[in-house]
Amino acid sequence: MDALKKIFKFLSSMTFAIILLVVLAAACAAGSFITQGQTYEWYAEAYSESAAAWIMALRLNDAFHSVWFVVIALFLCGNLLLCNVIRLKSLIQKSRQAGEPKKEPEQTADAMAHQISDPVQVFERLRMPKPKSLEQDGKQILFSVKNRAGIWGAWVCHLGILLLILGFGLGQMTKAEYTVYGVPGQTLLIGETGLFLQIDDFQVNLREDDTVEQYTADITVFRAPQGSTAEPDSEHAVISVNHPGRMFGMTFYQNATGWAARVTVEKSGSPIQSEIVCAGEYLPVVDLNDLVIVFNAFYPDYVSVPGSMPMSASSKLNNPGYLYSVYYKGNIIGMNVLLEGEQVTIDDYTVTFTEPQNYTLIQIKKDSFTWLAFMGGITTMIGLFFAFYLQLQAVCAVRDEDETWTVYGFCNKGGKLYEDLFSRAVQNTEKEAGRKE
Amino acid sequence: MLQVENTLFTIVMLLYFAAMILFFVYIAIKKDPVAKIAIGLQLAGLVLHTAALICRGIGAGRLPFTNQYEFATSFAWGLCLVSLIFLLKFKFPVLGAFSAPLIFLIIGYAAMQSKDVHSLMPALQSNWLGFHVSTAIIAYGAFGVSFVLSIIFLLRDKAKEGSFWDLHIPSREKLDLISYRSVALGLLFLTFTIITGAIWAERAWGSYWSWDPKETWSLVTWIIYMVYLHLRIRRGWQGKAAAIFAVAGFICVMFTYIGVNTFLPGIHSYK
User: Fold this and answer.
1) Are residues B74 and B165 in the same domain?
2) What is the reported pTM?
3) Cβ of A14 and B230 within 8 Å?
4) String of b and e for A258-277 (b: at least 16 CB within 10 Å)?
5) pLDDT tens column, A386-434
6) Are residues B86 and B139 in the same domain?
7) From the CA of B78, how many Å to the nearest CA of chain A?
8) Largest CB tally within 10 Å, which of A226, A284, A390, B150?
């Protein structure tokens, strides 16, 4: 039983919190230095065989989603929760007591001053609220307190971090994410949602200096009609970078762009296939699947410099150049750049590239717990503000037998700086009193 | 406007340099009027620095926070501002002698960067840019001051009783409290930076947290300062251990700022 108590005490202790924070920082740093999401072979090539073995064994290739990282986060949540639960009662008590003058202020005061003739001035100089006049043990007392909410700062901050981790964790577990890409006129199925996304228009707005000002996609999302005569249930939005759209409970982001072109395959002079292909994609020939056309890259303003890689002089469509490669049974049989109007012939087949245009890549996301994570973030910030800038202060003045006052000052985390502040307020009050006399 | 900014920037560098030299002279000859002139020069530098940043903003047609040069000069501005506030509030000119070289180092780094004005890429065209970067500037400035204060704290032990250092540097307890206040300011603003960044990332990239190296190192920095705060209230670890963590925290800040861009490029690496 004692052992259990000891374990419980340790798990809820500040020492454990500090250990967890240091381990978490080290884990984050390690995760940032090691390229994430690669294979054993990649790490063996980049580092060494033994390093790769360690990386894979410790799951450092996916550090932020590994079991040990989640365990650290869970321990931190447990520590924060226990800390908050344990402290709740004493904080409520402390908060209540903060509103009353202390029974023996001389023993607990951070600063005190005797023989003050005008204590109200000291309250004012310390920017305290108007003091209440009380009587305690036959003595007159002036008492004022401010920033009582500050007592709750660390507690609120802990709560915020808990909400943040909870929101993030739940979001990671339940979120749905899809990516679709295409050119205007295309209709694309969004994963298993049963929804379709139609790209009505896509514009890349260029500035005079050829830099991109904005990518704007005009999209319609609809659910397939249930009967042949029924109208599809649809929503429409114009989305651009930094301006996502919200439809059917999901958020649509204009995420990326690239070039696409129409690839037409003819056999013995008759067209057999014509499809829009994005740069980086491949197209198996429809009646000879072993023959594959790869659209490697696109150069809108192609310039050929002998001895160097193909390049584009600008992003304007002045001289379209299509870098392609042809594979047969998995082996590369040709690679070149085709210009507009040119074609490549492979036995009976001829391939042409036309209609260069920008495609849009749209990211679709549904995370029902984003709000919780943001609530957590804002709560954390409020907690920090309370803890740092609403430090509990109390001033208590007791009337002595000689009709002068003794003033006591308390400030949570004030220390020597509060002592200085208090002394200045007292000195200035006394100076003022001296001048009046 | 950009020409005016260029001229102002040169004057600001000279003023910061002169202030740094005068702070050193103050330490050497121990005359308070020299410290007053040094503070005056640094204040003048800050005013002209503000004017330079405004000119840059007008000339570029946007907030001057988007490339290495702009952030470096803004960082130096933030550090100078926070340093002067702490120096004047706590009547502590020796702080200037330690913070001035750091300010000069950062503005020197800014001077080495390209000053070309480039148009903003779509992801950076957001009102969140102002909130996110301006809070980072104050956070970094405050952490810079806490770093300087922690160095002074660690050196203070060597001061002989009654010496200039003993008389002109606040007590260990006060230094610790002043350092705590600058960390508090920095941490509050860093939290604001991370939150505004997350809101912005959610709108621009569709994910409020992607474990991008910059994000990750901001979190590491935040954690280090959280450890500092807990160490301060833990018996036996106050003072020296906390000061060492404040120094480590600022090393993290600098790594997040320069190291990540250099060694760990990600979606934050806007050149």
Assistant:
1) no
2) 0.89
3) yes
4) ebbbebbbbbeeeeebeebb
5) 999 998 999 999 888 878 889 999 998 888 888 888 999 988 888 887 7
6) no
7) 20
8) B150
